[in-house]
């Protein structure tokens, strides 16, 4: 059957390719996946079960249940974000749908979307599916993989229409605080860029609280904040996320959403509401566990002599590796049974690095780092 050109031109995800290799091998420890090894907190699961028992199996309002939107509005006040649940919040099927909706609703074919790299793998393909051009903006280990106004200017982003990024960052674990965000916000205002700020890892920071670019002067009106339940609440399979944006942007996103998705999964909406109402302690326990693992993995890589930038968010570290990262990752997998993702799949600046996820139990992290050490020897 004929396949659409724009899809034919999009290569399959480099991460998937690695998982397929890992699945085919025996006794593999995977530090490759970008999802929590925890289950969702029990109270959230219980709310989902209860909703099913009560026969809550219908569609919800397109924008999501009103109580959930109110809950999200309250939840994001911890980041000083102030959004009206009626007109400025839309509930989506994962942050993934929010990324897709942002592109399809707010970017025109032929527009240019600046994508800092190394980057989460979905942004460039989603922008291209919306007919946009992608402008890579390299970030560098020397700058702690932070996005700077200089990098934006050097890449030519002054002529772009939009910018999409995530901090805390996947794949590097970098975070940007308010002082780091200010020059980026100034650049966006000066050059009239729409900003899509993927803040799905906002709750997973280890050096201080998360700052959102949308709180900076003049930024709320040009920013879509993307959030979700997959990471902090360990709810990847429930598929629940949201976008916060000015009313006209939410209205536009809802127009696409109402024809393509109708509403986010109902069971997940009940789970999500309970998660934000009562699961702060469970989230904090998971965050502390990630932090212990993060310190352990960083110190082990440094002991091995691998340069490892101090990741302060999400659940990834991004050490340098000797030689070609794809070859390194492939040999590590076949010789020692440890799956990591080569940095080059995340775009420019990722080469010569590995993305290592520490959303894995301590025993596996100990064994995997011992194997990596043996492999390096
Ligand atoms: N954004 C980033 C930066 C991610 O790492 C991920 C998950 N890997 C997503 C979005 C997608 O999350 P969701 O499960 O909510 O669609």
TrEMBL record:
Its EC number is 2.6.1.-. It comes from the Archaea. InterPro entries: Aminotransferase_I/II_large, AspAT/PAT-like, NHTrfase_class1_PyrdxlP-BS, PyrdxlP-dep_Trfase, PyrdxlP-dep_Trfase_major, PyrdxlP-dep_Trfase_small. Its cofactor is pyridoxal 5'-phosphate. Residues 27-371 form the Aminotransferase class I/classII large domain. It holds the Pfam family Aminotran_1_2. GO terms for biological process: amino acid metabolic process. Belongs to the class-I pyridoxal-phosphate-dependent aminotransferase family. This is Aminotransferase. It comes from Halolamina salifodinae.
